């Protein structure tokens, strides 16, 4: 059975949102202060952008989404490192879903590598554009 990563994200979306939101609230001060509904919606949009990026085989989808979000968050007073942290938390949760849901080791490792590549590219764009100060 071959599973696509975008389908896995969609199938486990509710559990992913729940876990990511709980960790974000525990680990990121700004997310703990934000309204819960807002945090849930933001995590949902992040997962949707990730799934779309993978479905289209186009990492730019996720990168464009995150760059747009980074601008919004800066205007709201959030630090870009907090956005970096939510990307990292999201990646950890999707990795856990892959490990739990994909029994075939080769397939599982391929999905983990794909996720790592897409999320790594997204983090690099955020780092270069915002953390290093190039816009």
What attributes characterize this protein structure?
mainly alpha; 135 residues; 84% helix; globular; 7 helices; Globin-like
What does this structure look like?
The protein is mainly alpha-helical and 135 residues long. Helix content is 84%, strand content 0%. Helix 5 (59-76) crosses helix 7 (105-131).
Helix-strand blueprint:
Layout: H1 5-11, H2 13-27, H3 29-33, H4 36-55, H5 59-76, H6 80-101, H7 105-131
Helix pairs in contact: 1-4, 2-4, 2-6, 4-5, 5-7, 6-7
Number of helices: 7
Say how many strands there are: 0
Mean pLDDT: 91
**What gap, in angstroms, lies between the N and C termini?**
43 Å
**Total tally of structural domains:** 1
The profile of the biggest β sheet is: none
Tell me what portion of residues adopts beta-strand conformation: under 5%
Helix amount, in percent?
Answer: over 70%
- Output the helix-strand order: HHHHHHH
Shape: globular
The SS-based structural class is mainly alpha
């Amino acid at each position: 059975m071959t599973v696509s990563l975008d389908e896995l994200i969609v199938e486990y979306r509710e559990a992913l949102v729940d876990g990511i939101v709980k960790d974000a609230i525990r680990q990121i001060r700004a997310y703990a202060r934000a309204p819960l509904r807002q945090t849930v919606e933001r995590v949902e949009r992040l997962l949707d952008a990730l799934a779309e990026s993978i479905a289209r085989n186009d990492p730019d989808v996720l990168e464009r989404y995150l760059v747009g979000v980074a601008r919004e968050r800066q205007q709201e007073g959030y630090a870009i490192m907090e956005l970096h942290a939510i990307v990292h938390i999201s990646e950890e949760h999707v990795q856990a879903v892959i490990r739990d849901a994909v029994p075939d080791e080769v397939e599982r490792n391929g999905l983990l590598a794909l996720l790592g590549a897409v999320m790594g590219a997204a983090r690099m764009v955020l780092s270069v554009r915002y953390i290093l100060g190039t816009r």
